[in-house]
Write a structure and sequence with these properties.
four-stranded antiparallel β-sheet, alpha/beta
């Protein structure tokens, strides 16, 4: 690491460790304000910063931090990172570290992580470990989950089915930039990219043939089962990644609503929508989950997707700062929003229609608990088996129950949860439909 890279790393870490803004935003702002950093410098800085954030519980322990107290200095955290995570020997440490630092580094090398508390070994906040233990997870399961999130996530892209085929896009990327890809094992539209090339600079991206999207997120489309000519709603559309997937599944037919309370997020959907070639998407800004626009569509939707606002704890490979930015209190506040949003969205589902609830979280309080609470007050809905739905779509995937529950160590995706609910058709209506069919 050069002196310039080390100085930039310390600056970015000092800002990121205040946890007042997302780490990726902090890194991006620093790069915008420091044009002298070249591509290689930026790559080293970003890799180091995110590496420190991923391993923060371990580095805190190694550097002598006390539970619940202020973090050790940025310099000490970086020393612990170089010594124990990057496995540099004392001669390889950057020149800024003097003899006293090297003595401390030697002491850190002698510390055994196996003697550390469970949350340190799993590199997870104590409150998250407590929640997992309360859910009945074993120590081994918690370690597997936490340690699987210590590596950077791979780059997955989704091929836009109305514009291209997977194999053709794979060949195009290989020819255009010597980019190697492999077919994702579960999603029929996904490619896993080798390395981290700037996909957004290639024609395949600029012309709407691909979008960046984790494979786990792509599987939500299969659970929704959107089809040609249907009425579909993406209730928390955000910047529209799943909206674009649903639109492509509908073959650019029917009517697809993209609802969100953020005008900024919906504005970010516009250029993506233009690239995609879709004309069946209708972005809708709403004031809340009880907006009049929602009420007017009561009982009309074939499919409603609720990708609910959540803690994001399943995305720690990408957003490791969430380990410090989320708290039990913030999760409780999200729980109230999640059940309110699910209750409201359910009103749009027609008889026989499908309601899909999803989060990028591994916490049962945001997942099974929300679904259980909803079903207890909505007997007109029943839980469908995600395994059976995916099997009909020719996706063979290891799941332990009726929910879609993905983890990095088992599925090489973000930690993802989804429940598929169906609104029952009253018995009399079902008989009438049977007679009409005959």
């Amino acid at each position: 690491m050069t002196p310039i890279q080390l100085s930039a790393t310390l600056d970015v870490l000092n800002s990121a460790l205040s946890f007042t803004a997302p780490a990726d935003a902090v890194v991006s702002r620093h790069f915008r304000e420091n044009k002298n950093l070249g591509p290689k410098d930026r790559a080293v800085v970003a890799e180091t910063v995110f590496g420190v954030l991923r391993h923060l519980p371990q580095l805190d322990w190694l550097a002598g931090g006390e539970v619940g107290s202020k973090l050790p200095s940025t310099r000490d955290l970086l020393l612990a990172f170089f010594t124990r995570i990057k496995h540099l020997n004392l001669r390889e440490l950057p020149a800024v570290f003097g003899d006293n630092d090297k003595e401390r580094a030697a002491g850190m090398k002698g510390m055994a992580l196996r003697d550390a508390p469970l949350n340190v070994r799993a590199a997870l906040p104590q409150w998250a470990v407590d929640a997992l233990l309360a859910d009945g997870k074993t120590e081994e399961e918690i370690l597997e989950l936490g340690q699987s999130m210590l590596q950077a996530a791979p780059l997955d892209i989704r091929v836009n089915g109305i514009k291209a085929k997977r194999e053709a896009v794979a060949a195009e990327l290989k020819a255009a930039g010597d980019i190697n890809t492999t077919l994702t094992p579960f999603s029929p539209w996904g490619l896993r990219v080798e390395g981290k090339p700037a996909i957004n600079k290639y024609k395949a991206f600029l012309e709407g043939r691909v979008e960046v999207q984790d494979e786990g997120s792509q599987l939500l489309g299969l659970l929704c089962g959107a089809r040609r000519g249907q009425m579909v709603a993406d209730f928390c559309a955000g910047a529209g990644g799943k909206t674009l997937l649903l639109g492509a599944m509908m073959q650019n037919s029917g009517r697809l609503y993209a609802f969100d309370i953020s005008e900024k997020r919906l504005s970010n959907l516009k250029p993506r929508l233009a690239r995609s070639g879709l004309s069946n998407v209708h972005p809708q800004l709403i004031s809340s989950e009880s907006d009049q626009k929602i009420k007017r569509l009561a009982g009309k939707m074939d499919v409603v997707l609720v990708d609910a606002p959540c803690s994001g704890m399943g995305t720690l490979r990408r957003n490791p700062d969430l380990k410090a930015r989320q708290t039990p209190q913030s999760v409780l506040e999200l729980n109230a929003k999640q059940i309110a949003i699910l209750n409201s969205a359910s009103r749009m589902v027609k008889q026989g229609g499908r309601l899909v609830y999803a989060t990028c979280s591994f916490l049962s309080s945001e997942n099974e608990a929300i679904v259980d609470a909803f079903l207890a007050t909505h007997p007109e809905f029943k839980l469908l088996d995600a395994r059976e739905i995916l099997k009909k779509e020719r996706v063979e995937i290891e799941l332990t129950g009726e929910y879609l529950q993905l983890t990095p160590h088992k599925h090489q995706t973000d930690a993802f949860f989804a429940a598929v609910l169906e609104r029952s058709v009253p018995a009399a209506a079902a008989v009438d439909e049977s007679i009409a069919a005959e």
